[in-house]
Specification:
Blueprint (H helix, E strand, L loop, with lengths): L2 E5 L2 E3 L5 E8 L8 E6 L5 E8 L4 E4 L7 E6 L4 E6 L8 E7 L2 H6 L7 E5 L2
Parallel strand pairs: 2-10
Antiparallel strand pairs: 1-3, 3-8, 4-5, 4-9, 5-6, 7-8, 9-10
Length: 120
């Protein structure tokens, strides 16, 4: 059974940083694309980033490009999202998901989410 557990969210001031983690189990983590998506209050789920670790390929949504970094630790089956220069518009619940963009947005394998609030 696929199990994804996010952590690391919290309240941060604009310009600050946070690192989200996602502990994965129940599948072969090292060979699975992994993604982060987010949902802001009153808005639809939005894709943030995807990593394919076995090809060392990362992709990012335009609003976060240059500020966020996705990475994995395959030995720990853990996905990360380093978020720098945070803005108020980054406020959302962040979810990790198994798979690429389509799977992350429309599939069944997402964690329970972690709240990120950017506010002064």
């Amino acid at each position: 059974e696929v199990h994804l557990v996010e952590s690391g969210g919290g309240l941060v001031k604009p310009g600050g940083s946070l690192r989200l983690s996602c502990a994965a189990s129940g599948f072969t983590f090292s060979t699975s694309p992994m993604s982060w998506v987010r949902q802001a209050p009153g808005k639809e789920l939005e894709w943030v980033s995807t990593i394919v670790s076995y090809t060392n390929t990362t992709t990012y949504a335009e609003p976060v490009k240059g500020r966020f970094t996705i990475s994995t630790d395959n030995a720990k089956s853990t996905l990360y999202l380093q978020m720098n220069t945070l803005k108020s518009e980054d406020t959302a619940v962040y979810y990790c998901a198994k798979g690429g963009l389509a799977s992350a947005l429309y599939g069944s394998y997402r964690g329970q989410g972690t709240q990120v609030t950017v506010s002064s």
